[in-house]
Design goal:
alpha/beta, Nitrilase/N-carbamoyl-D-aminoacid amidohydrolase, six-stranded mixed β-sheet
Length: 275
């Protein structure tokens, strides 16, 4: 059976890009030292700053981004595959793309994905988020080839849209990445439920590296990075503080679980009475 050793890097990114690159790089090295072949970092790896205009001001183009350059060099040095959860990349009209990058062991960019679903919510009077003020939504799902599996790429709030995950599974994904910066409020209520549900519905492994703790810009994120198998069992879980979790994925489990409960093959069209 094919196996792959994966790691989730949990961070507490701040407002200084260089400091975040250094923190992520140190944790990536730690994960590689534990034998991880695929290492995933959280959403907004290189910057979390809620100050109006700060994301665009501190971002740059893909070609000039210092984080992307550093992570490409690190992947090549360590001979690992990196899933950089996301980096703010300038996209024009004063906005950025919330862009996830898959980088191969040669340092080349294998695939990239722009977060489709924008987190525009009001949780309470003190927790209002308007992601679309700073970011332009993507419009295309992405699946990429790893040596032993196909990887579906999503980011954070995408986890609330199961049709995206089903489409990735139908297209051959056996692993789906969900790098995130979930708020503490929504994380405590929904994080485990949503991620385990997406694993069960798709018969995929889920790797979900997270931001965690109280950040420099005042936000509080939930942490609890997760690696989940296709049956919905948690293989590894982080806490709130920065660190690394690691698990070995037995890719034969995907076919085994989908054989037991072949729900992906049982989807049927239906009408809606009374509409």
């Amino acid at each position: 059976m094919s196996q792959i050793r994966v790691a989730c890097v949990q961070m507490r990114s701040g407002t200084a890009v260089a400091d975040n690159i250094a923190a992520a790089s140190a944790l990536i090295r730690q994960a590689a030292g534990q034998g991880a072949e695929l290492i995933a970092t959280p959403e907004m790896t290189t910057l979390l700053d809620r100050k109006p205009g700060a994301v665009f001001e501190k971002s740059t183009t893909e070609e000039a981004d210092p984080g992307l350059a550093a992570f490409r060099a690190l992947a090549a040095e360590l001979q690992v595959t990196l899933l950089i959860g996301s980096i703010a990349i300038r996209a024009g009209d004063g906005k950025c793309a919330n862009r996830s990058f898959l980088i191969g062991p040669d340092g080349e960019i294998v695939a990239w994905y722009d977060k489709i679903h924008m987190f525009d919510v009001q949780l309470n009077a003190g927790n209002i988020y308007r992601e679309s003020d700073s970011f332009a939504a993507g419009g295309e799902a992405v699946i990429a080839d790893l040596p032993a599996a196909r990887l579906g790429m999503t980011v954070c709030y995408d986890v609330r849209f199961p049709d995206l995950f089903r489409a990735l599974a139908w297209s051959g994904a056996s692993i789906i990445a969900v790098p995130a910066a979930f708020t503490r409020i929504t994380g405590e209520a929904h994080w485990h439920i949503l991620l385990r549900s997406r694993a069960i519905e798709t018969g995929c492994f889920i790797i979900a590296p997270a931001q965690g703790g109280k950040h420099e810009d005042g936000r509080e994120t939930y942490g609890h990075s997760l690696i989940i198998d296709p049956w919905g069992e948690v293989l590894a879980e982080g806490g709130v503080d920065p660190g690394v979790i690691v698990a070995t994925l037995d890719l034969g489990k995907v076919e085994e679980v989908r054989g037991k409960v072949p729900s992906l093959k049982h989807v049927r069209p239906f009408g809606l009475a009374g509409s």
